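Data card: per-record layout.
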Amino acid sequence: IIDGRKLYYSVFRANHPVANLVVVHGWLNSTKLFELAEYMAQRQINVHLFDLPGFGYSEGFHYSVPIDEYLTSIQTVLLKVDDRLPTFLYGHFIGALANLLFLTINRRLQIDGVILTSPLITVPEDRKVNIAKGILVNRLTGVLFEPMLINSFMNPTALTKDNYFIKSLCSDKF
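The structure for this 174-residue chain is written out next.
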């Protein structure tokens, strides 16, 4: 329970685990990532899945939960992992963005690796930045690459063909 709301959480435990993977889903999926979890657990990785507030089986209004609650839910799940094993964060879409924000705020947190797919970030065109240098700086310092921005210019019709979903995104208060 986070701020009085139920958070759905599930673990796929490996027989002889060598690592933990905490999965933070995107907008169009939730803990329906069970296939990934089963695959990884068979490869000796404990997989921790949860539905972000407002998604799947977690409480909250769909697509209108403050990002703070996403961050709190990531922290809550990380407290449940076996800290004797290496821990990796995986995030897709809004989950990837939430992971980036969470790690920016919690820079001293010991996470062994981060996997991001479609993280809704971009480098502004007016900045002449060599991406390889930015990645190198990030690797050496652990500091997020400064000129990355949240990509707010995404066309919602590129996300889905579901008109109800598109309408809810366009009327979102964020």
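Known properties of this structure: Confidence is low (pLDDT under 50) at residues 140-152. The first helix runs from residue 34 to 42.

See the next section for split statistics.
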